[in-house]
Amino acid sequence: MNKEWSEANKSMQLKLGKRGTFDEGIAELFKLRGELMKCVDHFREELRTEDFSAIPFINADGYHNKTVGYSLWHIFRIEDIVAHSLIAGDEQVFFSGGYRERIKSPIITTGNELFKEQIAEFSRQLDIGELYSYVHETAKSTEILLNSLQFEDIKRKITEEKKQYLMGLNVVSSDERSFWLIDYWCGKNVGGLIKMPFSRHWIMHIEACLRIIAKLK
């Protein structure tokens, strides 16, 4: 993991866990996300449309065996689902913004169920401009949510009612590659969710994208 990002992530997590440094932790999270978003935006500047569906490490083990287009979809579908369906309890940006039609996606899920050539084919179908609109709108909506949280909120657990609601949305595939996500998310409290989908998850997949892009060059 990028040393600078890793250290920033560790510092942020420690501060979020203490009442006296909670606000500072949120500020550090925003700063880290800002740095990571610069990378995401740079992908659009340096890549051709077809590069977003390139899969140079198709047979590798690791997050780099995906495509850049898929990785962006995956990061922000998960963030949208967790932020809105599990924490805020409101409508996902994906649905309120009509992004399925705009992005031209054949799926509404996180994409965990896809593998190898399925990932490349999925990526080729995406409208990259609209995908970036979704990326930014989702990130902004998450940061509004984060700004509204108090220290007491991070101990809040995900209720069974929210878990059942999430399952009814069909945004997580029933495939074994995907369905474990529901128990994983619902087994965490709000603080645990902040520490993974909203930060570490970004780092893991953005680093994988950088590896893909280096190979393409």
Précis, in short:
The protein has 217 residues and is mainly alpha-helical. The protein has helices spanning 3-16, 22-46, 68-88, 93-96, 99-103, 117-124, 128-148, 160-169, 180-186, 190-216. The protein is globular, with a radius of gyration of 17 Å.
Looking at this protein, list some descriptive labels.
single chain, 217 residues, mainly alpha, Four Helix Bundle (Hemerythrin (Met), subunit A), globular
Individual helix count: 10
For the terminal residues, how far apart are their CA atoms?
A: 21 Å
Q: Into which percent range does the helicity of residues fall?
A: 55-70%
Strand content: under 5%
Unreliable stretches, pLDDT < 50, 5 or more residues? none
Topology at a glance:
Layout: H1 3-16, H2 22-46, H3 68-88, H4 93-96, H5 99-103, H6 117-124, H7 128-148, H8 160-169, H9 180-186, H10 190-216
Description:
The protein has 217 residues and is mostly helical. The chain has one domain (3-216): dinb family like domain (Four Helix Bundle (Hemerythrin (Met), subunit A), Up-down Bundle). The protein is built from ten helices and no strands. Helix 1 (3-16) runs antiparallel to helix 2 (22-46), helix 3 (68-88) runs parallel beside helix 7 and helix 3 (68-88) runs antiparallel to helix 10 (190-216). The radius of gyration is 17 Å and the shape is globular. The chain starts with a helix and ends with a helix. The model has no long low-confidence stretch (mean pLDDT 97).
